[in-house]
Design brief:
single chain, alpha/beta, binds nicotinamide-adenine-dinucleotide, Rossmann fold, seven-stranded parallel β-sheet, 269 residues
């Protein structure tokens, strides 16, 4: 049984719900985040749900903090079976409005944070023949308007996951990548973008989800158990991805119309 789980971004949202899903199986959790109050709350919920573990402050931008976390997992849990790279932040804004600092910030957390998490935990996963679960987004596959830095970071997470899937198979390390559409969490708190109107638009999208973070955690748990590589928890996301693979031009046209609509809403003449 694979029951020692490390999760980044475990102090809130999807990271917390994934922790609770595995806790219900009696798992040992290594919970990491920059939000220590959130981590403490997650650990107490994990214990109520039937799991246990420990928390550690860890900023995924800092590789030395991730290797320290891996070392703590070895000392306290004797290793790790599943590493979930979930920590992430939100951003929005048309390409001409985004600064290079916005790009650096987004790439450092949402892409390089995952690269560093995979690298820091790989030695332990090679020993346990464990699994990597990377949390990307439908943004990686659909490239929605006014979020190019987020799209690129998440597309990088999908490319990294595909690369690892093929490189690590012979070492019996499993790889999974999760691409949810929008769902309600505290993600908006981390939003960085040029205009308040854009933040409002993203807020509306988060609220519009028919499924919750807990539903997504359940879906991820079940699909990982089945061995699925690319995990798309929203039905609408699965339909959109199938359509894009069949007829990409149709999707580009749709996205271009959406971009024009968004521009008129967020940047009135
Ligand atoms: N909510 C959505 O609509 C949505 C859609 C697709 C993908 N995602 C992805 O799901 C993941 C989880 O996000 P969420 O929606 O639960 O948001 P959330 O804000 O509720 O949780 C994200 C957690 O990551 C932590 N975090 C942020 N920067 C960090 C850093 N540098 N180091 C360590 N921890 C850090 C935050 O403190 C927070 O606790 C993210 O990767 C996000 O991009 C979310």
């Amino acid at each position: 049984m694979q029951n020692r789980i490390m999760i980044t971004g475990a102090g809130s949202g999807l990271g917390r719900e994934l922790a609770l899903r595995w806790a219900r199986e009696g798992s040992q959790l290594a919970l990491a985040d920059v939000n220590e109050a959130g981590l403490a709350e997650t650990l107490s919920l994990v214990r109520e749900a039937g799991g246990d573990g420990f928390t550690q402050r860890c900023d995924v931008r800092d590789y030395s903090q991730l290797t320290a976390l891996a070392q703590a997992c070895e000392e306290r849990l004797g290793g790790i079976d599943v590493a979930i790279n979930n920590a992430g932040v939100a951003s929005g804004g048309f390409f001409n409005e985004l600064s290079l600092e916005d790009w650096d910030w987004q790439i450092a957390i949402n892409l390089m944070g995952v690269v560093k998490g995979c690298k820091a935990f790989l030695p332990l996963l090679q020993k346990s023949h464990g699994k990597i679960i990377n949390i990307a987004s439908m943004a990686a596959l659909m490239q929605g308007p006014a979020m190019s830095n987020y799209n690129v970071a998440k597309a990088g997470v999908v490319a990294l996951s595909e690369s690892l899937l093929i490189e690590l198979r012979d070492q019996q390390v499993g790889v999974h990548v999760v691409c949810p559409s929008f769902f309600q969490t505290n993600l908006l708190d981390s939003f960085r973008g040029p205009t308040p109107a854009m933040k409002q638009q993203v807020g509306k999208l988060l609220e519009s989800s028919p499924i919750s973070a807990a539903d997504i955690a359940d879906y991820v748990y079940a699909e990982v158990a089945k061995g699925s590589f690319m995990i798309l928890p929203h039905e609408q996301g699965r339909m959109a991805w199938a359509l894009k693979q069949k007829n990409p031009q149709l999707l580009y046209d749709e996205m271009a119309n959406m971009a024009a609509k968004m521009r008129s809403k967020t940047q009135p003449a």
